[in-house]
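F.,

This is the one I mentioned.
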């Protein structure tokens, strides 16, 4: 990226002891000083932070204490840079931090980036905590695009940040407000990337009690976070699978232990669960043994403390936000319904699918299937399958005409074959998408998947439809199908998402067959 003018935003609350080191490190960046500004938002400090800022070359802003999300939003409102970088008031960026963080924005498709946290502490617990971070960074390295951005070392394009509402100020304290933003952006199809060479230094906690309190707070607020983004409770780009096993297995171990005292049948499952829990501890233990053998005695206590604290925080969060349990169960049942129904239909309809394939071959030769790139969950592309309904080569010719309305359909399209017209009228050409449903690229019910050129024209509000898996059927299919324009279809789909429930999906499935039989909008 050219040396554009950029902004660095630092929220500070009672940070007089740590903020000077942060500001001195920002003043020593290898990025030209005249090409960046530093904005410090004093979030209602009472310890002299405001007075301290007068001795540094920064833009100082003060607000009543409203939390780091509000402070960062205030900083971005003042920012003049095309890219806005973030760090915290207890972090000291490396000299090349800005250079490395900004380098990824040479790709115009990148909307945001995340760097890494390091420490120079010598005590064993901080060193062990650092290796916990390293384990999560290794997870991020496996992803070309990520969904998990911590603002101790982060950057976003300012326009993307502002048009998507910035940080959610409903998070009143430092918790997971940064994850909430990155989850929202990734689900809307924006590309976020990992910049492992962009480094800030930090002092990790030095006692297990402090560590446990921090993990408890994070888990507590994650319950609210997952009310907003329930799909992320099952998977994100940073959380190792072993951690999920530990969090899930620990309460089951406790319950199983209580049952095993009285019931013999509970003992074999308890042993199996204990073995699974023990196996989940092994990868991190090996990491510590290789990287820092002196810290090895703390590896298992750290993981056990983490699992206990996270479970306690989640339990309290579920009491505060009981809706989360219903949401997670409904999402799991939705996926179970997708897998069960798609597998059953593919098996039951195999003779029909074979007959349709033969008819297409006899009518117009190969290929039998039409494959096209579509945009799915989180903006990820996938190949959607349909039975071919057009004469060979005509789709590509049509594409070269560059129509103003990219998803236009003609009622009497001359490209459609005789068999294709019959298939379209009865929506049988869509049946191969049951395979997409079984693979998890689509769902039985959801917004219809769009082509990349259509998604590229979405407004930020329309990008919200990328937050769920596209569907084989959906609200548009029972309200007019191809007769609806994009402008008419998207509001229907957004309303469906806002009011989603498993019962709503079942109602749409029940209405799909009559809509198909009527044939309205199918051409």
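My design for it:
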């Amino acid at each position: 990226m050219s040396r554009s003018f950029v902004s660095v935003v630092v929220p500070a609350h009672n940070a007089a002891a740590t903020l000077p080191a942060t500001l001195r490190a920002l003043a020593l960046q290898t990025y030209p000083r005249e090409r960046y500004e530093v904005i410090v938002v004093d979030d209602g400090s009472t310890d002299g932070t405001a007075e301290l800022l007068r001795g540094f070359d920064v833009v100082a802003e003060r607000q009543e204490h409203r939390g780091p999300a509000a402070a960062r939003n205030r900083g971005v409102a003042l920012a003049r840079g095309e890219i806005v970088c973030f760090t915290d008031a207890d972090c000291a960026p490396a000299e090349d931090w800005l250079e490395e963080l900004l380098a990824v924005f040479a790709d115009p498709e990148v909307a945001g980036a995340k760097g890494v946290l390091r420490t120079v502490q010598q005590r064993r617990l901080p060193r062990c905590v650092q290796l916990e971070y390293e384990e999560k960074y290794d997870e991020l390295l496996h992803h070309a695009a990520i969904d998990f951005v911590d603002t101790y070392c982060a950057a976003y394009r300012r326009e993307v940040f502002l048009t998507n509402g910035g940080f959610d100020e409903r998070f009143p304290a430092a918790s997971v407000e940064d994850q909430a933003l990155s989850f929202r952006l990734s689900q809307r199809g924006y590309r976020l990337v990992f910049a492992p060479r962009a480094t800030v230094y930090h002092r990790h906690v030095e006692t297990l009690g402090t560590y446990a309190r921090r993990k408890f707070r994070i888990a507590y607020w994650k319950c609210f976070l997952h009310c907003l983004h329930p799909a992320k409770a099952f998977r994100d780009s940073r959380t190792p699978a072993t951690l999920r096993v530990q969090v899930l297995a620990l309460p089951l171990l406790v319950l199983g232990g209580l049952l095993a005292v009285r019931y013999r049948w509970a003992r074999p499952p308890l042993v199996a669960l204990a073995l699974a829990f023990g196996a989940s501890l092994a990868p991190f233990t090996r990491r510590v043994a290789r990287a820092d053998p002196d810290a090895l005695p703390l590896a298992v206590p750290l993981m056990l403390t983490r699992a206990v604290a996270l479970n306690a925080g989640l339990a309290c969060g579920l009491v505060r936000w009981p809706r989360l349990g219903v949401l997670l169960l409904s999402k799991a049942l939705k996926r179970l319904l997708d897998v069960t129904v798609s597998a059953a239909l593919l098996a039951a309809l195999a003779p029909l699918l074979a007959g349709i394939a033969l008819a297409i071959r006899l009518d117009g030769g190969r290929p039998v299937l039409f494959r096209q790139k579509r945009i799915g969950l989180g903006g990820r592309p996938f190949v959607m399958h349909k039975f071919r309904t057009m004469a060979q080569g005509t789709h590509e010719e049509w594409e070269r005409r560059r129509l103003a309305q990219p998803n236009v359909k003609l009622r009497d399209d001359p490209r459609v074959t005789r068999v294709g017209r019959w298939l379209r009228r009865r929506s049988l050409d869509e049946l191969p998408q049951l395979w997409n449903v079984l693979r998890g690229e689509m769902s039985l019910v959801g917004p219809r998947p769009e082509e990349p050129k259509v998604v590229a024209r979405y407004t930020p509000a329309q990008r919200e439809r990328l937050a769920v898996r596209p569907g084989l059927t959906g609200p548009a299919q029972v309200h007019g199908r191809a007769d609806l324009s994009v402008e008419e279809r998207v509001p229907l789909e957004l309303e469906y998402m806002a009011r989603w429930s498993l019962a709503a999906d079942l109602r749409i499935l029940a209405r799909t067959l009559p809509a198909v039989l009527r044939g309205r909008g199918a051409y």
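The longest strand covers residues 191-202.

Talk soon.
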